[in-house]
Amino acid sequence: MEFQFDWPVFFETIPMLMRGLKFTIIITLGGLGAGFLLGAFFGLMKLARHAIPRTLAIIYIEAIRGTPMLVQAMFLYYGLPMALGLRIPPLTAGIIIIAVNSGAYIAEIVRGSVQSIDPGQAEAGRSIGLTRGKTMLYIIWPQAFKRMIPPLGNQFIISLKDTSLLMVIGVGELLRTGQEIVAVSYKAFEVYLAVAVVYLVMTLSIARGLRILENHLEMKTKR
Amino acid sequence: MEMIKIINLHKSYDQLEVIKGIDLEIKSGEVVCIIGPSGSGKSTVLRCINRLETPTSGHIIVDGKDIMAPETDINHVRTEAGMVFQQFNLFPHMTVLDNVTLGPIKVRNMGKTDAEELGHSLLKKVGLADKAKNYPEQLSGGQKQRVAIARSLSLKPKVILFDEPTSALDPELVGEVLEVMKQLAAEGMTMVVVTHEMGFARDVADRVIFIDQGIIQEDNCPEQFFSSPKNKRLQDFLGKVAEH
Ligand SMILES: Nc1ncnc2c1ncn2[C@@H]1O[C@H](COP(=O)(O)OP(=O)(O)OP(=O)(O)O)[C@@H](O)[C@H]1O
Ligand SMILES: [Mg+2]
């Protein structure tokens, strides 16, 4: 039997994927929003003067970056409830996993960007009597944030793709929705291709949007 | 009255002792220039005065406050002792006016309108009234340094510490910055100026200090300092400078 690409199935699949897409987007945005807060917090902690916050930040960052996200997801969803005696709903678990995972990478982005700012900036801030906190808030952070945008955009794309791993904990995201369609239609080629196309459209759009944002920011200071 | 009193200052970086016991008193209204070869510790002394560097031992008293005492608010001391850097260190993401009003607003809790009024008057003072809305990168080096001076003045400091304020400038831009500094000196500002501008030291300073190998080798009025230096190292140093 010869393989025939089934165009109608391909086109019918795409609207059917939208329900999954909704979860993919919710988890990506929710996870990254929380992940950014975690990343900012631990990234700055890694730059602390005291060894204790610094060590805590290093433990978090290395533990997450040194283990596969799939293992983190299984541990949080199946492992932790054994110890704590409470089950987390899949969607919430998905958001937490993306947050905790991206937070570790974002912490390194934050640390690197903050450290890349000329130390003379902090000295100038301190020399006019600003506290360390205000120097960070008004002088270092705004400059560092601009440098974070390209790597944050990159992390955005990575985390979006990583949400597909969450199918193992039963989150009805894009890939799992595709899998369910295959289960009834047996058209694996068309359906998974449609899934891939949807991911690709999103990642390319993000990359595009970021380039526009960067140019815009560039213009604003150069003028 | 002494504005700054330094008593037996020592500073080491790891094993390297950079400042090896410096005593110095600077009176209110005095202009003191510090000269010396590269790496002799001039910046280190200056940066200890507002505690950008922490002294290893000794005492520094700024306007009556021991900067190392636990009860001293170092941020307050820094508003009394402003600093101007060789590389300007303006805030590139803010307009010139915002550079000058940040301290008054965020440190002194001044209202925006009052702060901008102060900012405009300081920019006028340094001859940059028309640059308020520009960003630092649109300015020449000399203009940047004048903004930096206005920024340090915005806290109404009692003394300003200058660390080679003209060393990063093209020769033709040095004059405009020195002019502003002369004007400040004439108004009675207490100034400590690390510089290689011998002309400025001769004309404007009340005292000139020669630092070499981490100690004060000579401390004299400009006439004596330049025409009849007692210290052997200073004689050599001035001889080398004259050759250029
Ligand atoms: N953060 C630091 N860590 C280690 N060594 C330092 C540090 N800062 C300065 N030094 C050393 O201390 C010595 C004195 O430095 P300082 O910057 O005070 O010299 P300077 O007289 O200002 O020189 P220049 O004319 O080049 O500015 C130099 O040998 C320098 O290498
Ligand atoms: Mg120096």
Biggest protein-protein contact in the assembly = A-B, 21 and 26 residues
Largest sheet of chain B: 6 strands, mixed
* Count of domains of chain B: 1
As for the number of domains of chain A, it is 1
Secondary-structure element pattern of chain B, one letter each? EEEHEEHEHHHEHEHEEHH
Low-confidence stretches of chain B: none
Indicate the overall shape of chain B: globular
SSE order and pairing:
The complex is a heterodimer of chains A (223) and B (244).
Chain A: H1 7-16, H2 18-45, H3 51-65, H4 69-84, H5 90-115, H6 119-127, H7 132-162, H8 174-185, H9 188-222
Helix pairs in contact in A: 1-9, 2-5, 2-8, 3-5, 4-5, 5-7, 6-7, 7-9, 8-9
Chain B: E1 2-13, E2 16-27, E3 31-35, H1 42-49, E4 57-62, E5 65-66, H2 74-80, E6 81-84, H3 96-106, H4 112-125, H5 141-153, E7 159-163, H6 171-186, E8 190-194, H7 198-204, E9 207-212, E10 215-220, H8 222-227, H9 232-243
Parallel strand pairs in B: 3-8, 3-9, 6-7, 7-8
Antiparallel strand pairs in B: 1-2, 1-4, 4-5, 9-10
Bound molecules: adenosine-5'-triphosphate (ATP) and magnesium ion (MG).
InterPro entries (chain B): AAA+_ATPase, ABC_ATPase_HisP-typ, ABC_transporter-like_ATP-bd, ABC_transporter-like_CS, MetN_ABC_transporter-like, P-loop_NTPase
GO cellular component, one term (chain B): plasma membrane
Protein name (chain B): Amino acid ABC transporter ATP-binding protein, PAAT family
Structure, briefly:
Chain A: It is found in: Cell inner membrane; Cell membrane. The complex is a heterodimer of chains A (223) and B (244). With 223 residues, chain A is mainly alpha-helical.
What does this entry look like structurally?
The complex is a heterodimer of chains A (223) and B (244). By secondary structure, chain A is mostly helical. Chain A is 82% helix and 0% strand. Chain A has one domain (7-220): MetI-like fold (Orthogonal Bundle). Chain A has nine helices and no strands. The mean pLDDT of chain A is 95. With 244 residues, chain B is an alpha/beta fold. Chain B starts with a strand and ends with a helix. Chain A binds chain B through residues 118, 120-121, 123-131, 134, 138-139, 142-143, 146, 221-223, and chain B through 50, 52, 75-76, 78-79, 82-83, 85, 87, 89-93, 102-103, 106-107, 135, 137, 148, 151-152, 154-155. The complex binds adenosine-5'-triphosphate (ATP) and magnesium ion (MG). Magnesium ion (MG) binds at residues 42-43, 163-164 of chain B. Chain A: Belongs to the binding-protein-dependent transport system permease family. HisMQ subfamily. Chain A: One of its GO terms (cellular component) is ATP-binding cassette (ABC) transporter complex.
